[in-house]
Structures are given as structure tokens and as C-alpha cells.
Amino acid sequence: MRVTERCRWCWLAALPAVFGLAIDAAHAGDAPTLDPAAAATFFETKVRPVLAEHCFKCHGPEKQKANLRLDSQAAILEGGDSGSPIVPGQPEDSLLIDAINHGEIVQMPPTGKLPPQTIADLTAWVKSGAPWPSDQSVVKRSAEDDAGYQITAEDKAFWVFQPPRKPPLPPVRNTEWPKSPVDHFILAPLESKGLRPAPPVDDRTLIRRVTFDLTGLPPTPEEVEAFLQDDSTDAFATVVGRLLASPHYGERWGRHWLDVSRYADSNGADENRLHANAWRYRDYVVAAFNDDQPFDQFVIEQLAGDLLPARDREERNRNWIATGFLAIGPKPLLANDAAKVELDVVDEQIDATGRAFLGLTLGCARCHDHKFDPIPASDYYALAGIFKSTTTIDRYDFQNHRSWTERALGSDEEEAEHQRLKAEYDLANELRRLTDGADKQKPHIARMAAVRKELGAIPVAMAVKEGNVANAHVLIRGNHLTPGPEAPRGFPRILAGDEQTPIGDEQSGRLDLARWLVQPDHPLTARVMVNRIWKWHFGEGIVRSVDNFGRLGERPDNQPLLDYLAVQFVESGWSIKAMHRLIVLSSTYQQSSNPQSSTQSQRSEVGSQKSDSRSDISNLKSPIRNPQLIDPENRLLWRMNRRRLDAEEIRDAMLLVSGQLDLTVGGAMVPPEVNYERVSDLNRKKGGGPLAQAYQSARRSLYLPVSRSGLYDLFQVFDFADPSVVTGRRETTTVAPQTLFLMNSDLVWQSTEHLANRLLHTSPTRQRGGEALSQARRVGICDDAQRVHEAYERAYSRPPGSNEISRALDFIQQYEDELAGDGLSADVCRASAWQAWCRVVLTSTEFMYVE
Questions:
Q1: Has this prediction a pTM greater than 0.85?
Q2: What is d(CA 833, CA 838) in angstroms, rounded to the nearest whole number?
Q3: Which of 115, 404, 565, 687 could be bridged to 530 by S-S, CB 3.0 to 4.6 A?
Q4: Tell me, what's the pLDDT at 113?
């Protein structure tokens, strides 16, 4: 039951006295910082192409109307007759933003208003400070002189473009510490700097860490107890094996890949229509991770599954569904220029493919040669020909109601029926658009609704298929109205060389591209993926800019380790689970996350040496060195990184601990008949519509619909991935609104009500060897101290200390006394007090973080 508003404020006032809040005070004012590499990529893909297409003709190097140039940062800030058109950080005061919104002063472009998404991109650019990547030390080339582009020996020598070679294990002095080859590559640099790794973490913390890490869920008290009671040398390996075999492993690690594949259940962009069949791709990804599908096959299926032979319809359907990787990105559905829409779709696919599998920002070469990496525009358009020969949108010529390609998963007859109904739906939509007057449109709208219901009865998947095979032309400044020379379909020359086998006219080239990407000696594909795996385990990648390995990205903190993992990955048959075992069974992974522990360990060792040497200082191996001063960012991994739970983990843990979580695997959360409908229209329906209803579900967060233009509120607050772009690294912010959200969230209040009810009405009977309460549990006694004990075990995977029990009981008693003064019944006071205490438990720092 809910407590009164007075109770709510009693709880808020008492929070600091019981636990630390989930938001550390030291970081309460932190805000996300702008990543220079991400800012440059955003500019090159979202801003410069717009300026080049719509502005440079009148405000560029050849013509400057109103004495204004917009082709460099210096020129923009200098401004023209009306001053500078932008005020960095203040779009509301920027003439450029007013002009593209067709304000009262001036309207630009004069030929018509830009699409809403383009306006939003330019506004975001100005708001972020209008960053403009430096052109210093960069040779500017245009598409016209691309024929003279030279890839230099220096370009080829850059580490990214050299195939990885497996290095030998580096020698270490402390030969007892390494448990895995990984440890040699971590310990050797530490020893060279006079540092030692942190001591191993305790068993309770370790099983909590690895269980969250591999399944996204906390361990149950029974799982913790079984691990503590297992005295065998392979006890932890047994836990890891159990977790990797769990169906919930694929849900956790599949979600990581869905960040990379920019998964969403709606289109976003200029027309946020529902992807009611996107869930099949999500379930495909989960199954691939659970089955430990070799990553090379995983890559091939996502780029060209429809071109692979299949033994039966089930395998054919799986292969089709896999190509959802290409189909699921945001698409401009409303823009009038069909040719430009097609090129924008192709550009999004090139960008996603480049970042996901190569860690390169290929999209930056659309308007000109890449300004930082050796990727000429001709290489971009060589790839563009591959994706332009692929069908992602059925009819680009249908203005204002384009729809993405879907494939029926049943018989050939069902496929034909699906195509017929789809054509009928498109025709009704076109007639509606061409009909004036709401009353006259009603028959067409009614027909659309009827056909949509018939379409919903046929199982389909978002997928791509082969289109009209043809090469693309290099476009001058990325403008489709100024085509240059034809670019034969192919791959980036810096990686594939100048002499490439021509791609035949019978297929788009997607299968050739996929197979080239997973060649064993490819310089990037294995490196990029093992770096992602490392990041998802340790919080930071060996290359911290996980989606950008180019010159704007960071250099690897430990390249020998990265290359060892990449080669080992391929040698293991591209097995992701083999990489997990290699990493989590290492001493590196099992270190304490306490920054003080390593220094204390070194002091203890030096003290021991002093004692053993009877004050003979010459016998000391090394002086005390503080790793926090030498390596404050922990790039050497002298300790484990502490991390806050992801948004999904927070919600799932609350539901699991309170006994509500529905662990059903897979399936749709929205009805198929709402496919193509606008999310805004659905949200206005009675009861909030299917999305709002899905958010009330107790299913795992993986299955909640992801709407690109309106994320679930908890996802927004706790740094969910941007579902419109490849996201290999989520930001982790610590801001005051997160605490306010937890204080007022229906999820938190409902979860604490269930947890309190569970504690008050369930008698724990588990036996715990050696614990003071074990005998009481066996005889069925269940007092309040035991309830506190039970809550700690479920929420924190540890028993409370005596002081913690006393503080909890004092809090609960004081809360009951406060409510009793309001004349409430004893049962209500007791239930409300326990609910308030459970809210403290589920919003505490210890609950929200993994050590």
C-alpha cells in the first residue's frame, strides 16, 4: 500500500542517516563532457554536408552574399554585414538558427525550409559550442581531384592498418599472480613502473560482479551460498560456466550488441513510426550470443544473410532476420527528394557498418576525402554502390509515407499475399494524401486500418534484399545533383589494397564485403570486437574510443594485449564465450576495486621486507609508489574499475529482488497490427497505448520498446544508449535529477512495496553454515533482525553488520512511531515503515554500483 505524502517526506529526511544516497555528493554536479572525436564525427556527417549542399553556393569560397562565408569556423565567427550568424552554445541567440527556422528576420535556404531533423542537428551543433574540426596538417581534396589521391607509406604504417600479430607472453617477476595469459600483459607494465596489482576481491563481491557482468542480474542468496560453500579449486570457473549457459547471458550481452546495432522499435528521424516487427532481430541477437555463434558468421549474416544458402525455411528466416542490422536504422520517410532520401539511407548504413565492424568513421568521406583517415571519397562511393544496390525502402518515390522493406517468413503464398496487401496499403495511403478534406479521406484511412490488421496476421521481419545492382557515382560535395565519375563497388583501399577482385553484376556485393571483413588477417574486425568485449567487462576499452580507431580516436593503452586478444579470438573460432573465460578467470578481473587497497598492499609488503631484513634498507625490493598518483585513470588496470549499473540493470535488479521479475525469454511486446503507426498517435490512445502498457510490464528491460523520439523515462535518466547511432560506449553521468527520479519513480515505490511485503510475510528457511542466524532460520523464527538480514542478502549479496541492523531497526521504529501519531493502524504503520526502509535499500549507492 502507498504511504501518505507526509510519510514520503519522512523517508526523504531520514535517508542520509541510514545509507549513502545512490548519487555520490562528490559528483552530484558532474555533467557529460563533449567527446572531441564524437563532435568531429557529428560535424562531418550532420553539419558540413548540410552547409555544403545548402549554403556554400552563396556563402562559400566563390561567392559571399552579405559578405558572409560559412565554409570555415573563422569565417563564420567573423560574420558578415549582420555580424556572426552563430553564438556558440546559444542557438536561441543565433541568427543562423533563426534563419533555418524561417523566423521573422530572414528565411534560409530561400528555396524552402530544411527538414525538421536537419534543423535539430544544426541546433544541437550550435548548442554544443559549434565545434569545427581543425583542418591544420590536413591536405584538402575534393571529389574532382580524387583520382590523384595517394595513400602514403605513413598512412599504411599506422598501427590500425597493420594486421595484428600474436606477441609472446611478457616475462613477469611475480610468477604466482597470473592465472590467465591476460595477466602477463597487465602485470609486466605494472612491474616496470614499480606498481603492484590490487589484492583479490572477496568471494561475495566477486560473484556479485561476475553475475551482473554476464547476466545483468544480481545473484540470488542461494547462488552466493553455493559458491561460498564450494571449496574446490575450480569453484569460480563453475560459476562462470553456469552463467554462460544461462539464457539470461544472451539477454545481457545481446543488449550490448543492440547498442552497437542502434536497435529501436520505432523509426525516429522525421517520422517516428513504430517498428512493430523489429523484435525479431533483437531475439536473433540474443539467440546468437546464447548459442555462442562464431562472430565471423554473425557478421556475415547481418550484412548478407539473405544471400546465404539455407537448408530449410527456419534457417532462411533466421538469415533474413539477421539483415535487420541494415534495416533498423533511422530513415527519412517524409523528405520530398527521393534520390537524396536513398543516399541518406545508404549513408546511414555505411556509417553503421564502418563504426560497428571497423571502428572507422567512413561516413565522414561522403562530401570530401576523409580529413583525418586515409579514406578518399571514391572509397566511400565504392561502398555506397554496394548499399545502393540493396533494397531497404520499397518505394522511394512515395513522398510522405515511405515504408521500410519487410519479408514474410511463411510460405511463398504468404509472401505473395504480404506483397499484395502492402501494395494495397501504400495505394490507400497515397490516395489519402492526394485527397482534400478530412471527410473525403476517411474511407482511405479506414481501408488502411483494415489492411494493417490483415498485414499483422502475417509474420514478417524487417530485412533488406537485393535491389537493382549498379555502381554509384562520386558526388561533388556529397550533392546528388552534381555527380562525378563512377566508383566501381569495392572496399577501402587502405585496408583492401589497390588491386581488388571486381564485384560481379549478379549481386550487390554485400556478401563479398561481409566475407572480406572476417578474413583472419583483417587488421580491424577482430581488434574492434575484442576491444568491445574488454570494455564491457572493465568499463573502458584498451582503445577507449571504442567506435573510432582512426587518427581522431585514442591510441591503445596496451597494444600487445589488444593484438594477443584479437589473434586469440580468431584462433578460438571467433568464440565470444571463450573470450569471456579468458578474461573473467584472470587475476586482473578478480582484483579489488578499492583504490586504497593496492597502496596498502604495497605498504604491507615493504613493511614485511623491513621486518625480514632486520632494518637492512638495502634488501628492500622497491619503495612505496602510489598508483593513484602514477596512473590516476587506471589505464594500467592496477585495480578493477567500479561501475554504476546500467539503466536496464537497475530496473531488472529492483524487480528481481522484490520478487516481481518475469524471466520469460523473447517475444513481442507490442501487437503487430500497429506496425507503421506514429508513436505520437499511439501514445494518445486510451490507457496510454501499447508502448505505455509495455512499460508497465515486469519483463526484463531488454524487451521494453525503444522509441527513438521518446525513450522510457528510466532509460532517459540513466544514460541509455542513443538508439539512432552506433554506441559502443555509454556515458555514465552522475546528476541530481537521478536522485529525484528515484525518490518519485513508480518503479521504485512498487518494488519496495513488494519487497516489504515479501519480507513481512515470508519466513526464510535457508540454512547458512557458520552464520549466527542459521539456527533461527531452521526453526522458523523470523524476527525483524532476520528480515533486515534477508534484505541485505537479496539486495547486496552480503549479510549486514550488527551496526547496520541496529540502524535499520531504529529507522523502522522511528518511522512507525511517527506514523502512529497520525492515528494510523498498527498494521499500516508497520507496512509503511518497512516500505520506507526498503526504498532506502533499493536506492542506495551499494545497490546501484558493482565493485
A1: no
A2: 9
A3: 565
A4: 82
